[in-house]
Design brief:
There is one protein chain. This protein is mainly alpha-helical. The protein has 17 helices and no strands. The longest helix is centred in the middle third of the chain and has 58 residues. The protein is elongated and about 90 Å long. The protein starts with a helix and ends with a helix.
Length: 379
């Protein structure tokens, strides 16, 4: 049975390696960009550092070279403080641990790299992880940018019609005493509501956007949001693929680092802040502790598909768990890329059809009374 996560904080990495097989490299982290040293800068930092260290340059000189390439004063000062602490006798891992810009997973990864002499490999893999994460984010933004622009434009068109076009027709109908159909009365009511409370709605939307981080930090709200996302057609499958890609990538790296499976699951739960996955991993951990095999522990979960269950079963039978998880990670990464492109392709016509429907309803509701008006004017 593996050790508890709390024990990692109370022992050195060297001791952990002696007790639980904590040997090569421990790598992985989830970064939440509330810091200026975001995932993009981390990608460049770890990639450059690994190249310099592999070339035989000392760590201090490598950090100094990276500092010299920076243009922003804040970043230069950031690296200067790291170099100063390094000169004061602190290890690189201790420097990372003392800074909120780095997570505990980066700290433990680098600490193991220092203890085992694999710091070059650690920094290289950290750079590769952040590169993949940033690429995934770019693909998602590219997939959503154009549909969002179309949606925003369409909403403005609908609002324009409700605030300017509908009131013009309403005045004409009132002046001529035309009896209005139910759909026209309904559209006019919406127009009046938007005119009276539109600014309040806009203010409320911007307030929610401004407070989204605080609101989504609340456990109950976050839980409801995460489970709701999975229920959205197609979008839910895309989001599930994203987190399964992260899960398999993390697990593959931890297992290849000789971290026991139970401990890998515990660490993944702390790295990936997605409630459905965390709940599934809780069940998975509980079943493993009761003696179930890995594939049996996930067989009943709706989050893990049959492909993963079958391949993990094969991995256990052939003792190639790290290899299978690595291949699963590659497959889910490809799936995420494909789904992001398909998401963009599907959303564009869908938004156009939906907005076209609303515009059509408004026009029909305004033109229906025109037939009665023509008979009134003709009479």
């Amino acid at each position: 049975m593996g050790f508890k996560l709390e024990q990692i904080k109370d022992t050195t990495v060297l001791e952990a390696s002696k007790k639980g097989g904590f040997e090569s490299l421990l790598k992985k982290e989830i970064t939440f960009s509330g810091t200026f040293f975001n995932a993009k800068r981390k990608e460049a930092f770890y990639s450059e550092l690994s190249v310099l260290l592999k070339a035989g340059i000392h760590l201090r000189e490598a950090l100094d070279l990276i500092r010299g390439n920076q243009k922003k004063e804040r970043i230069v000062e950031f690296y200067s403080k790291m170099i100063s602490e390094l000169d004061s006798g602190y290890s690189f891992s201790e420097i990372l641990k003392s800074r909120t810009e780095f997570t505990e997973y980066e700290h433990y990864s680098v600490q193991i790299g220092e203890e085992s002499g694999n710091l070059v490999r650690i920094t290289q893999e950290l750079g590769a992880y952040f590169a993949q994460r940033n690429e995934r984010r770019r693909n998602l933004l590219n997939a959503l940018t154009y549909p969002i622009i179309i949606l925003a434009t369409a909403i403005l068109v609908v609002v324009f019609m409700l605030r300017l076009v509908v009131p013009m027709f309403e005045d004409i109908f009132k002046q001529n005493g035309v009896e209005l159909p139910a759909i026209t009365v309904w559209i006019i009511s919406i127009s009046n509501f938007v005119g009276s409370y539109g600014w309040m709605l806009v203010f409320g939307i911007f307030t929610l956007i401004a407070l989204r981080k605080f609101l989504f930090a609340q456990p109950m709200i976050k839980r409801q949001k995460d489970f709701l996302l999975l229920k959205i057609p197609f979008v839910g499958e895309f989001i599930k693929a994203v987190y399964l890609s992260q899960f398999t990538q993390t697990t593959a790296l931890l297992i290849s680092s000789k971290v026991p499976m139970l401990n890998s699951i515990q660490m993944v739960k702390r790295m990936i802040r997605f409630i459905p996955l965390q709940s599934a991993l809780d069940i998975m951990e509980s079943r493993i502790m009761k003696g179930s095999s890995l594939h049996e522990s996930i067989s009943d979960s709706k989050l893990f598909d049959n492909r993963m269950v079958s391949l993990i079963k094969v991995a256990e039978e052939t003792n190639q768990t790290d290899y299978i998880f690595e291949k699963l990670s590659q497959q889910y990464t490809v799936e995420v890329d494909q789904k992001s492109k398909l998401l963009s392709t599907i959303m564009e016509p869908f938004i156009i059809v939906v907005i076209g429907f609303f515009v059509g309803v408004i026009l029909v509701s305004m033109y229906l009374p025109m037939f009665r008006l023509s008979s009134v004017l003709g009479g």
